[in-house]
Design a protein that fits this description.
Chain lengths: ~180, ~220
Amino acid sequence: MDANYLKGLAYVMNFDKQFIIQLCWQLFNTAVLCFILTKLLYKPVKKFLADRKEKIAKQIDGAKAQLEDAQKLKAQYEMKLSEIEKERNAILDNARSQGKQTEQQIISDAKREAETIKNRAMLDIQREQEKAKDEIKKQIIEVSSLMASRFIASSMDEATQNRLVDEVIADLGEIKWQS
Amino acid sequence: MNEIDVYGIIHIFGQEIWITQTIVTTWVLMAILIIIAFLARLQLKKFSEKPSGVQNVIELVIESMDNFVISAMGEKYSYFANWFFGVFVFILISNLSGLLGFRPPTADYATTACLALSTFVLIHFMGILKQKGSYFKGYIEPIPIMLPMNIISEIATPISLSFRLFGNILGGSIIMGMVYSLPAIFRIAIPGVLHIYFDVFAGCIQTVIFVMLSMTFIKDKIGD
Protein backbone atom coordinates (compact mmCIF):
# COMPACT_ATOMS: atom_id res chain seq x y z
CA MET A 1 0.00 0.00 0.00
CA ASP A 2 1.34 3.40 -0.96
CA ALA A 3 2.25 5.30 2.23
CA ASN A 4 1.52 8.61 0.60
CA TYR A 5 -1.85 7.38 -0.50
CA LEU A 6 -2.64 6.32 3.07
CA LYS A 7 -1.45 9.65 4.37
CA GLY A 8 -3.85 11.34 2.05
CA LEU A 9 -6.71 9.45 3.60
CA ALA A 10 -6.13 10.91 7.11
CA TYR A 11 -9.19 12.70 8.43
CA VAL A 12 -10.57 14.35 11.56
CA MET A 13 -14.24 13.74 10.98
CA ASN A 14 -16.16 12.59 7.95
CA PHE A 15 -19.62 11.25 7.36
CA ASP A 16 -19.26 8.82 4.50
CA LYS A 17 -19.52 5.08 4.06
CA GLN A 18 -16.20 4.62 5.84
CA PHE A 19 -17.66 6.33 8.92
CA ILE A 20 -20.39 3.71 9.09
CA ILE A 21 -17.78 0.96 8.78
CA GLN A 22 -15.65 2.53 11.50
CA LEU A 23 -18.72 2.85 13.67
CA CYS A 24 -19.51 -0.83 13.23
CA TRP A 25 -15.90 -1.70 13.95
CA GLN A 26 -16.00 0.21 17.20
CA LEU A 27 -19.35 -1.25 18.07
CA PHE A 28 -17.90 -4.69 17.59
CA ASN A 29 -14.79 -3.81 19.60
CA THR A 30 -16.80 -2.38 22.46
CA ALA A 31 -19.15 -5.33 22.49
CA VAL A 32 -16.22 -7.75 22.59
CA LEU A 33 -14.54 -5.77 25.35
CA CYS A 34 -17.73 -5.61 27.40
CA PHE A 35 -18.34 -9.29 26.92
CA ILE A 36 -14.82 -10.27 27.96
CA LEU A 37 -14.72 -7.90 30.94
CA THR A 38 -18.10 -9.10 32.12
CA LYS A 39 -17.26 -12.77 31.79
CA LEU A 40 -13.72 -12.47 33.05
CA LEU A 41 -14.02 -10.01 35.87
CA TYR A 42 -17.34 -8.40 36.60
CA LYS A 43 -19.55 -11.41 37.12
CA PRO A 44 -17.07 -13.59 39.04
CA VAL A 45 -16.18 -10.75 41.40
CA LYS A 46 -19.84 -9.86 41.90
CA LYS A 47 -20.62 -13.49 42.55
CA PHE A 48 -17.78 -13.67 45.04
CA LEU A 49 -19.05 -10.55 46.79
CA ALA A 50 -22.63 -11.78 46.81
CA ASP A 51 -21.54 -15.17 48.17
CA ARG A 52 -19.52 -13.55 50.88
CA LYS A 53 -22.38 -11.22 51.75
CA GLU A 54 -24.74 -14.15 52.01
CA LYS A 55 -22.27 -16.11 54.08
CA ILE A 56 -21.75 -13.23 56.50
CA ALA A 57 -25.50 -12.65 56.70
CA LYS A 58 -25.98 -16.33 57.44
CA GLN A 59 -23.30 -16.23 60.12
CA ILE A 60 -24.88 -13.18 61.72
CA ASP A 61 -28.30 -14.79 61.60
CA GLY A 62 -26.86 -17.98 63.08
CA ALA A 63 -25.20 -16.05 65.87
CA LYS A 64 -28.44 -14.21 66.56
CA ALA A 65 -30.40 -17.45 66.67
CA GLN A 66 -27.83 -18.98 69.00
CA LEU A 67 -27.95 -15.98 71.27
CA GLU A 68 -31.72 -16.17 71.34
CA ASP A 69 -31.57 -19.84 72.20
CA ALA A 70 -29.06 -19.17 74.94
CA GLN A 71 -31.23 -16.42 76.35
CA LYS A 72 -34.28 -18.65 76.26
CA LEU A 73 -32.33 -21.40 78.00
CA LYS A 74 -31.08 -18.94 80.58
CA ALA A 75 -34.61 -17.71 81.26
CA GLN A 76 -35.73 -21.30 81.59
CA TYR A 77 -32.99 -22.12 84.06
CA GLU A 78 -33.69 -18.99 86.03
CA MET A 79 -37.35 -19.90 86.21
CA LYS A 80 -36.45 -23.39 87.32
CA LEU A 81 -34.08 -22.02 89.93
CA SER A 82 -36.73 -19.71 91.31
CA GLU A 83 -39.17 -22.59 91.36
CA ILE A 84 -36.68 -24.68 93.27
CA GLU A 85 -36.18 -21.82 95.70
CA LYS A 86 -39.92 -21.53 96.17
CA GLU A 87 -40.24 -25.25 96.69
CA ARG A 88 -37.40 -25.23 99.19
CA ASN A 89 -39.01 -22.40 101.12
CA ALA A 90 -42.31 -24.24 101.13
CA ILE A 91 -40.67 -27.42 102.40
CA LEU A 92 -38.78 -25.53 105.10
CA ASP A 93 -41.93 -23.69 106.18
CA ASN A 94 -43.82 -26.91 106.28
CA ALA A 95 -41.12 -28.60 108.36
CA ARG A 96 -40.95 -25.66 110.68
CA SER A 97 -44.68 -25.55 111.32
CA GLN A 98 -44.78 -29.29 111.70
CA GLY A 99 -41.90 -29.11 114.20
CA LYS A 100 -43.70 -26.47 116.15
CA GLN A 101 -46.84 -28.53 116.15
CA THR A 102 -44.95 -31.59 117.35
CA GLU A 103 -43.24 -29.54 120.03
CA GLN A 104 -46.56 -28.19 121.24
CA GLN A 105 -47.99 -31.67 121.29
CA ILE A 106 -45.03 -33.06 123.18
CA ILE A 107 -45.20 -30.28 125.71
CA SER A 108 -48.93 -30.64 126.19
CA ASP A 109 -48.55 -34.44 126.42
CA ALA A 110 -45.85 -34.04 129.02
CA LYS A 111 -47.95 -31.55 130.94
CA ARG A 112 -50.92 -33.88 130.90
CA GLU A 113 -48.79 -36.77 132.06
CA ALA A 114 -47.22 -34.70 134.79
CA GLU A 115 -50.69 -33.67 135.88
CA THR A 116 -51.75 -37.29 135.96
CA ILE A 117 -48.70 -38.32 137.96
CA LYS A 118 -49.21 -35.44 140.34
CA ASN A 119 -52.88 -36.30 140.80
CA ARG A 120 -52.08 -39.88 141.42
CA ALA A 121 -49.42 -38.90 143.99
CA MET A 122 -51.88 -36.61 145.72
CA LEU A 123 -54.40 -39.40 145.81
CA ASP A 124 -51.78 -41.72 147.28
CA ILE A 125 -50.89 -39.19 149.89
CA GLN A 126 -54.53 -38.70 150.76
CA ARG A 127 -55.09 -42.40 150.97
CA GLU A 128 -51.99 -42.79 153.16
CA GLN A 129 -53.21 -40.00 155.39
CA GLU A 130 -56.58 -41.68 155.71
CA LYS A 131 -54.86 -44.91 156.49
CA ALA A 132 -52.68 -43.24 159.12
CA LYS A 133 -55.68 -41.53 160.65
CA ASP A 134 -57.49 -44.86 160.85
CA GLU A 135 -54.46 -46.42 162.45
CA ILE A 136 -54.21 -43.67 165.02
CA LYS A 137 -57.90 -44.01 165.76
CA LYS A 138 -57.50 -47.74 166.23
CA GLN A 139 -54.51 -47.21 168.47
CA ILE A 140 -56.29 -44.60 170.51
CA ILE A 141 -59.24 -46.94 170.94
CA GLU A 142 -56.94 -49.74 171.90
CA VAL A 143 -55.08 -47.57 174.39
CA SER A 144 -58.37 -46.23 175.76
CA SER A 145 -59.76 -49.70 176.22
CA LEU A 146 -56.48 -50.74 177.82
CA MET A 147 -56.55 -47.75 180.12
CA ALA A 148 -60.17 -48.43 181.01
CA SER A 149 -59.37 -52.03 181.76
CA ARG A 150 -56.55 -50.90 184.02
CA PHE A 151 -58.71 -48.35 185.78
CA ILE A 152 -61.25 -50.94 186.36
CA ALA A 153 -58.78 -53.69 187.36
CA SER A 154 -57.03 -51.84 190.13
CA SER A 155 -58.22 -49.72 192.93
CA MET A 156 -56.40 -46.65 192.64
CA ASP A 157 -55.37 -43.71 194.69
CA GLU A 158 -54.81 -40.38 193.26
CA ALA A 159 -51.10 -40.93 192.98
CA THR A 160 -51.53 -44.20 191.19
CA GLN A 161 -54.12 -42.64 188.92
CA ASN A 162 -51.79 -39.82 187.95
CA ARG A 163 -49.01 -42.30 187.36
CA LEU A 164 -51.26 -44.33 185.10
CA VAL A 165 -52.32 -41.34 183.08
CA ASP A 166 -48.70 -40.37 182.63
CA GLU A 167 -47.90 -43.88 181.55
CA VAL A 168 -50.70 -43.94 179.03
CA ILE A 169 -49.67 -40.64 177.62
CA ALA A 170 -46.15 -41.80 177.36
CA ASP A 171 -47.37 -44.94 175.68
CA LEU A 172 -49.53 -42.95 173.34
CA GLY A 173 -46.57 -40.88 172.30
CA GLU A 174 -44.58 -43.97 171.64
CA ILE A 175 -47.42 -45.51 169.64
CA LYS A 176 -47.87 -42.35 167.62
CA TRP A 177 -44.22 -42.28 166.64
CA GLN A 178 -44.27 -45.92 165.80
CA SER A 179 -47.13 -45.71 163.35
CA MET B 1 -2.03 17.64 13.34
CA ASN B 2 -4.99 15.91 14.91
CA GLU B 3 -6.01 13.83 11.97
CA ILE B 4 -6.76 10.17 12.28
CA ASP B 5 -4.16 8.25 10.32
CA VAL B 6 -5.08 5.28 8.23
CA TYR B 7 -2.60 2.46 8.82
CA GLY B 8 -3.88 0.07 6.23
CA ILE B 9 -6.75 -1.00 4.07
CA ILE B 10 -8.23 -4.48 4.04
CA HIS B 11 -10.92 -5.79 1.74
CA ILE B 12 -13.78 -7.93 3.00
CA PHE B 13 -16.44 -8.95 0.45
CA GLY B 14 -14.97 -6.37 -1.88
CA GLN B 15 -15.57 -3.71 0.68
CA GLU B 16 -12.67 -1.41 1.51
CA ILE B 17 -12.14 -1.29 5.25
CA TRP B 18 -9.70 1.15 6.77
CA ILE B 19 -7.57 0.14 9.69
CA THR B 20 -7.37 3.53 11.33
CA GLN B 21 -5.34 4.86 14.22
CA THR B 22 -8.49 4.72 16.32
CA ILE B 23 -8.98 1.04 15.66
CA VAL B 24 -5.41 0.18 16.47
CA THR B 25 -5.40 2.29 19.63
CA THR B 26 -8.66 0.65 20.64
CA TRP B 27 -7.09 -2.77 20.20
CA VAL B 28 -4.10 -1.78 22.29
CA LEU B 29 -6.34 -0.40 25.03
CA MET B 30 -8.55 -3.46 24.84
CA ALA B 31 -5.52 -5.68 25.19
CA ILE B 32 -4.36 -3.70 28.23
CA LEU B 33 -7.82 -3.93 29.82
CA ILE B 34 -8.17 -7.61 29.11
CA ILE B 35 -4.72 -8.33 30.54
CA ILE B 36 -5.58 -6.35 33.67
CA ALA B 37 -8.90 -8.19 33.92
CA PHE B 38 -7.13 -11.50 33.46
CA LEU B 39 -4.60 -10.70 36.18
CA ALA B 40 -7.43 -9.58 38.45
CA ARG B 41 -9.22 -12.80 37.66
CA LEU B 42 -6.15 -14.77 38.69
CA GLN B 43 -6.18 -12.80 41.93
CA LEU B 44 -9.80 -13.78 42.46
CA LYS B 45 -8.70 -17.35 43.07
CA LYS B 46 -6.57 -16.11 45.94
CA PHE B 47 -9.43 -14.01 47.34
CA SER B 48 -10.04 -14.59 51.00
CA GLU B 49 -12.87 -13.77 53.38
CA LYS B 50 -10.78 -10.98 54.83
CA PRO B 51 -9.94 -8.69 51.92
CA SER B 52 -6.50 -7.12 51.72
CA GLY B 53 -4.19 -5.56 49.13
CA VAL B 54 -5.19 -6.02 45.50
CA GLN B 55 -8.44 -7.68 46.50
CA ASN B 56 -9.56 -4.44 48.11
CA VAL B 57 -8.92 -2.51 44.91
CA ILE B 58 -10.77 -5.01 42.73
CA GLU B 59 -13.69 -5.16 45.15
CA LEU B 60 -13.79 -1.37 45.36
CA VAL B 61 -13.90 -0.98 41.58
CA ILE B 62 -16.61 -3.59 41.05
CA GLU B 63 -18.71 -2.49 44.00
CA SER B 64 -18.47 1.20 43.07
CA MET B 65 -19.62 0.41 39.54
CA ASP B 66 -22.44 -1.73 40.88
CA ASN B 67 -23.57 0.97 43.29
CA PHE B 68 -23.28 3.58 40.53
CA VAL B 69 -25.60 1.63 38.25
CA ILE B 70 -28.00 0.73 41.08
CA SER B 71 -28.23 4.35 42.25
CA ALA B 72 -29.04 5.52 38.72
CA MET B 73 -31.30 2.68 37.55
CA GLY B 74 -32.44 0.85 40.63
CA GLU B 75 -31.78 -2.65 41.93
CA LYS B 76 -34.13 -4.18 39.35
CA TYR B 77 -32.04 -3.11 36.38
CA SER B 78 -28.64 -3.74 37.91
CA TYR B 79 -27.94 -6.14 35.03
CA PHE B 80 -27.14 -3.06 32.92
CA ALA B 81 -23.96 -2.88 34.97
CA ASN B 82 -22.56 -5.66 32.78
CA TRP B 83 -22.70 -3.38 29.75
CA PHE B 84 -21.93 -0.08 31.45
CA PHE B 85 -18.94 -1.47 33.31
CA GLY B 86 -17.29 -2.24 30.00
CA VAL B 87 -18.33 1.09 28.47
CA PHE B 88 -17.19 3.03 31.52
CA VAL B 89 -13.80 1.38 31.64
CA PHE B 90 -13.33 1.72 27.90
CA ILE B 91 -14.22 5.43 27.79
CA LEU B 92 -12.10 6.11 30.86
CA ILE B 93 -8.99 4.40 29.56
CA SER B 94 -9.55 5.97 26.10
CA ASN B 95 -9.74 9.45 27.61
CA LEU B 96 -6.68 8.78 29.77
CA SER B 97 -4.72 7.27 26.89
CA GLY B 98 -3.80 10.81 25.82
CA LEU B 99 -1.40 10.76 28.75
CA LEU B 100 0.51 7.90 27.13
CA GLY B 101 0.75 9.76 23.82
CA PHE B 102 -2.04 7.87 22.08
CA ARG B 103 -4.63 9.66 20.08
CA PRO B 104 -7.68 8.91 22.26
CA PRO B 105 -10.19 6.66 20.43
CA THR B 106 -12.93 8.83 21.95
CA ALA B 107 -11.53 11.72 19.93
CA ASP B 108 -12.85 9.88 16.88
CA TYR B 109 -16.50 10.51 16.23
CA ALA B 110 -16.99 6.92 15.08
CA THR B 111 -16.24 5.71 18.62
CA THR B 112 -18.48 8.13 20.48
CA ALA B 113 -21.19 7.72 17.86
CA CYS B 114 -21.08 3.96 18.31
CA LEU B 115 -21.38 4.33 22.09
CA ALA B 116 -24.20 6.87 21.81
CA LEU B 117 -25.91 4.69 19.25
CA SER B 118 -25.83 1.73 21.59
CA THR B 119 -27.38 3.94 24.27
CA PHE B 120 -30.00 5.10 21.75
CA VAL B 121 -30.87 1.52 20.88
CA LEU B 122 -31.05 0.55 24.54
CA ILE B 123 -33.27 3.54 25.33
CA HIS B 124 -35.88 2.67 22.74
CA PHE B 125 -35.58 -1.08 23.07
CA MET B 126 -36.19 -0.87 26.82
CA GLY B 127 -38.91 1.74 26.21
CA ILE B 128 -40.87 -0.51 23.88
CA LEU B 129 -40.19 -3.57 26.05
CA LYS B 130 -41.37 -2.00 29.30
CA GLN B 131 -43.94 0.59 28.26
CA LYS B 132 -45.40 -1.18 25.23
CA GLY B 133 -48.31 0.94 23.89
CA SER B 134 -47.74 3.96 26.05
CA TYR B 135 -44.24 4.21 24.58
CA PHE B 136 -45.67 5.35 21.25
CA LYS B 137 -48.31 7.41 22.99
CA GLY B 138 -45.48 9.32 24.64
CA TYR B 139 -44.63 10.88 21.27
CA ILE B 140 -47.96 12.71 20.99
CA GLU B 141 -47.94 14.03 24.50
CA PRO B 142 -48.93 16.46 25.81
CA ILE B 143 -50.61 17.34 22.45
CA PRO B 144 -50.33 15.52 19.09
CA ILE B 145 -48.82 18.58 17.42
CA MET B 146 -45.74 18.02 19.58
CA LEU B 147 -44.90 14.86 17.61
CA PRO B 148 -42.12 16.40 15.47
CA MET B 149 -40.63 18.07 18.54
CA ASN B 150 -40.63 14.81 20.46
CA ILE B 151 -38.99 12.96 17.60
CA ILE B 152 -36.32 15.64 17.29
CA SER B 153 -35.65 15.50 21.02
CA GLU B 154 -35.25 11.72 20.86
CA ILE B 155 -32.79 12.02 17.99
CA ALA B 156 -31.00 14.86 19.73
CA THR B 157 -30.22 12.62 22.68
CA PRO B 158 -27.55 10.41 21.06
CA ILE B 159 -26.19 13.34 19.04
CA SER B 160 -25.67 15.46 22.14
CA LEU B 161 -24.28 12.47 24.03
CA SER B 162 -21.75 11.60 21.35
CA PHE B 163 -20.69 15.13 20.48
CA ARG B 164 -20.26 16.10 24.11
CA LEU B 165 -17.73 13.35 24.67
CA PHE B 166 -16.15 13.69 21.23
CA GLY B 167 -15.84 17.48 21.45
CA ASN B 168 -14.35 17.47 24.92
CA ILE B 169 -11.70 14.91 24.15
CA LEU B 170 -10.89 16.16 20.67
CA GLY B 171 -10.72 19.73 21.96
CA GLY B 172 -8.35 18.61 24.69
CA SER B 173 -6.09 16.73 22.32
CA ILE B 174 -6.06 19.64 19.81
CA ILE B 175 -5.04 22.06 22.54
CA MET B 176 -2.40 19.62 23.73
CA GLY B 177 -1.12 19.31 20.15
CA MET B 178 -0.92 23.08 19.90
CA VAL B 179 0.95 23.33 23.20
CA TYR B 180 3.44 20.70 22.06
CA SER B 181 4.10 22.66 18.88
CA LEU B 182 5.08 25.72 20.89
CA PRO B 183 8.76 26.62 21.30
CA ALA B 184 10.65 24.38 23.71
CA ILE B 185 10.54 26.88 26.58
CA PHE B 186 6.75 26.54 26.75
CA ARG B 187 6.95 22.79 26.81
CA ILE B 188 8.39 22.73 30.33
CA ALA B 189 5.85 21.92 33.04
CA ILE B 190 2.95 23.61 31.22
CA PRO B 191 1.84 20.48 29.31
CA GLY B 192 1.74 18.56 32.61
CA VAL B 193 -0.81 20.88 34.11
CA LEU B 194 -2.84 20.91 30.90
CA HIS B 195 -2.73 17.10 30.72
CA ILE B 196 -4.13 16.96 34.23
CA TYR B 197 -6.97 19.21 33.21
CA PHE B 198 -7.79 17.97 29.71
CA ASP B 199 -7.00 14.28 30.04
CA VAL B 200 -7.48 13.39 33.69
CA PHE B 201 -10.10 15.90 34.85
CA ALA B 202 -12.15 16.34 31.67
CA GLY B 203 -11.60 12.68 30.78
CA CYS B 204 -12.96 11.37 34.09
CA ILE B 205 -15.81 13.87 34.20
CA GLN B 206 -16.87 13.12 30.64
CA THR B 207 -16.77 9.39 31.33
CA VAL B 208 -19.05 9.75 34.33
CA ILE B 209 -21.34 12.14 32.46
CA PHE B 210 -21.65 9.85 29.46
CA VAL B 211 -22.43 6.74 31.49
CA MET B 212 -24.65 8.58 33.96
CA LEU B 213 -26.69 10.24 31.19
CA SER B 214 -27.01 6.98 29.29
CA MET B 215 -28.37 5.25 32.38
CA THR B 216 -30.69 8.14 33.19
CA PHE B 217 -32.12 8.21 29.66
CA ILE B 218 -32.72 4.48 29.68
CA LYS B 219 -34.28 4.67 33.12
CA ASP B 220 -36.53 7.51 31.97
CA LYS B 221 -37.86 5.41 29.12
CA ILE B 222 -38.37 2.35 31.32
CA GLY B 223 -40.67 4.53 33.34
CA ASP B 224 -40.86 2.85 36.74
